[in-house]
Design a protein that fits this description.
462 residues, alpha+beta, seven-stranded antiparallel β-sheet, 22% helix
Length: 462
């Protein structure tokens, strides 16, 4: 194993220094650890998606995943640390020497069967932010480095070395070495290139460091991921987000070839397509694969400028059920609010003439609704609109629509807008508009709009 350096130019804060020192407990990994673990092997080591939190802990959306858990809680640093220390010790995790425990923060390392886990806690206003992260069992000392590399820092889940060659020479050496060892290119960002092997996403960064007199530095930082999503050979530009277990990329490869690739790659893991052929609607198509546990992998392709814009997303059976439950709850809320809006509108019909519709008998006012350019799956009638928006944008559309209608004299009957969904209802004279949205954070946002006493005039997406 390569020696550890004592230089600290790249680290600030005593808490981080202690955290790095505690990582020296990384001894015990072997070259065999270079065989990256599968998602199931990671889950077997510790499944943080189901790991108990300190009582009354509050996780944020997507902060509960197989390799990591983050939450906030009203407690002291000492109480949180004591809770997780006992919990981990009971499960066979051994605490490393040199833990850091202060009044404002704590950093502690644990190991079990070659895996390294970190527990961090820090004060933030009235609460303590807690994170547990499984860093895996990969032996970073076995990753490719040019001859003459000099260690800067080494931990169980981070190494950096200065190397004698130029940035471009070192980049080429690292890329060749990783690919030859079975690592698959999995995207890039600036000086970093991502490589994947099973459940490990490896950030291999090569850069010139001013703090090292402009020398070339090679950094390796592995991260465990919750889904093992393959990518076709030849795809260069891609993006993976473990919070949503979603992979996006563009490629000139034809959709039929992409679907055939996934059918072949997923089959050994027990995944079976739910339809014989992909479901096609114009330039959009998709195919869903399901395993025995009821988990889903959805492959969706849109053709744009002769490119296959591809999205591959993993959902557990529990996530699928939760999405279904949210959809049913949102639909029930929409129906209830629409009924309430109709009742209130009916009660107002005896109001002042200025509140009544100025439309001629037998006709309905047209209300222009400008659909966003990125809307899709549009279904429209004179009195209803259904469409999808990219993840995270449905809420802002509903807020903008509400603001616009209020500016045009509509009065708010009900308004409940939250991050994961909500609904609004507005009235003007005898006219009522209601809108409901669902944001799972995993699939595109769903928007449903209903009109009473007025007709939608929806413009086509630009």
């Amino acid at each position: 194993m390569r020696c550890f350096a004592t230089r600290g130019e790249a680290i600030s804060g005593w808490g981080m220094v202690w955290f790095l020192l505690s990582g020296l407990f990384a001894g015990g990994s072997s070259a065999a650890d270079l065989q990256a673990p599968s998602v199931e092997e990671v889950r077997t080591s510790i499944d943080l998606s189901t790991w108990p939190m300190y009582p009354k802990g509050e996780p944020r959306p997507f902060d509960r995943r197989i390799p990591s858990l983050s939450y906030a809680v009203s407690a002291s640093i000492a109480e949180v640390v004591d809770f997780h220390r006992k919990q981990l010790s009971t499960s066979g995790w051994v605490e490393a020497p040199n833990p850091y425990l202060g009044d404002e923060s704590a950093n502690i390392i644990f190991r079990k069967n070659g895996y390294t886990l970190s527990l961090t806690a820090s004060k933030s206003e009235e609460k303590v932010n807690v994170s547990l992260t499984n860093h895996g069992n990969l032996s970073l000392s076995e990753l490719p480095l040019p001859e003459g590399a000099t260690p800067l820092f080494a931990m169980a889940y981070y190494t950096s070395h200065t190397v004698p060659g130029t940035k471009s020479e070192s980049r080429a050496f690292v890329d060749r070495g990783l690919i030859a060892s079975g690592w698959i290119p999995y995207g890039l960002a600036g000086d970093s290139r991502m490589f994947k092997k099973k459940a490990v996403l490896l950030n291999a960064r090569v850069f010139e460091a001013p703090a090292q007199q402009g020398k070339t530095v090679v950094e390796y930082m592995p991260q465990l991921i919750s889904a093992d999503l393959p990518v076709p050979p030849g795809v260069e530009s891609m993006q993976y987000a473990d919070t949503t277990k979603r992979l996006d990329y563009k490629t000139p490869i034809a959709p039929d070839e992409i679907y055939a690739f996934y059918a072949k790659q997923l089959a050994p893991g027990g995944w079976k397509p739910t339809t014989e052929r992909p479901v096609t609607d114009g330039k959009k198509s998709f195919q869903i694969h399901r395993n025995a546990q009821g988990d889903l992998i959805t492959v969706e392709i849109r053709i744009y400028d002769d490119q296959s814009e591809t999205t591959v997303q993993h959902q557990t059976a529990a996530e699928v059920e939760e999405e279904r439950r949210r959809g049913l709850a949102a639909e029930a809320a929409r129906k209830k609010q629409l009924a309430e809006a109709r009742e209130k509108a009916a009660m107002k019909r005896g109001g002042s003439p200025s509140e009544k519709s100025s439309a001629k008998p037998g006709t309905k006012t047209k209300l222009a609704i400008g659909l966003p350019a990125n809307s899709s799956e549009v279904e429209r009638t004179a009195s209803s609109l259904r469409f999808q928006l990219p993840v995270g944008s449905a809420k802002s559309f509903i807020e903008a629509t509400k603001t616009r209608l209020e500016g045009e004299g509509w009065k708010v009957l009900t308004s409940t807008i939250q991050e994961m969904g909500g609904s609004i209802a507005l009235t003007k004279g005898e006219m009522t508009i209601s809108a409901t949205f669902i944001e799972s954070g995993i699939l595109p946002g769903q928007v449903i709009m209903q009109a009473v006493g007025v007709e939608f005039d929806a413009t086509t997406p630009r």
